[in-house]
Amino acid sequence: MTAPLLSLDSLAKSFTMHLQGGLVIPVVSGISLDVAPGECVVLGGPSGAGKSSILKMIYGNYRADAGAIRVVDGSETVDVATAAPRRVMALRRNTIGYVSQFLRVIPRVPALTVVAEAATAFGLSREEAEARARRLLTLLNVPERLWSLPPATFSGGEQQRVNIARGFIADHPLLLLDEPTASLDARNRAAVVDLIETKKAAGTAIVGIFHDDDVRERVATRIVDVTRFAASAA
Ligand SMILES: Nc1ncnc2c1ncn2[C@@H]1O[C@H](COP(=O)(O)OP(=O)(O)OP(=O)(O)O)[C@@H](O)[C@H]1O
User: Fold this and answer.
1) C-alpha dihedral, 126 to 101 to 33 to 224, nearest 10°
2) Could you tell me if the ipTM is greater than 0.85?
3) 106 vs 19, which has greater pLDDT?
4) What domains, with CATH codes, occur in the chain?
5) Is the distance from the beta carbon of residue 20 to the nearest atom of ligand 1 less than 6 Å?
6) Is the CB of 181 under 6 A from ligand 1?
């Protein structure tokens, strides 16, 4: 088997509610999972099982309570669980892409620039970035008349497609997808499935959450039910 790009080792997460007298809510524990280049591992399980929390730990948004999150970054391996914030920021720039369920709207910046900026931040030239942005917005059926407008007034589905274009434009070796197809119609879901297949074929390692069964079945190389990592209250 190809060496993993991402390795979760005995990872655990609970939340401490400081305003509730320090109440501890255990979420997941003992997560060990390897993801190789070209694989798409889908996290399954019911609402509240901890799927998004796992993605947020890998991206460094949530701190892990225990365990390691090893990510291969060029010739180095970085443990996100213990890395300094500056190292995590560099990982996000070069190695880990993340598509959340909603676009964080940036005021006054046109949609084409919102998308292209993710590629220039990754190190591509402005020309290449804009060419890729145009191609992706076309593939995702975002009408050209919208490209020069800021996405603040776009519909939910249009904003989400700008968000997906932004997440897919660079060549990050690891891509985290948190329900990217949630607000899309069948045609655009199919466009996202095609984009995921292209990334897999290019050797990107993907960890994703998809509520649509048809999308999940089409893109998953493996489905991991996270309820098997359910943590119990101490
Ligand atoms: N920042 C937070 N503070 C407190 N509790 C949180 C926080 N984030 C998540 N939780 C709790 O952790 C549990 C897991 O949430 P998470 O969002 O990871 O689940 P999920 O499996 O992705 O659910 P869904 O499918 O509904 O999105 C939930 O009980 C949630 O309330």
Assistant:
1) -140
2) yes
3) 19
4) 6-229 (3.40.50.300)
5) no
6) no
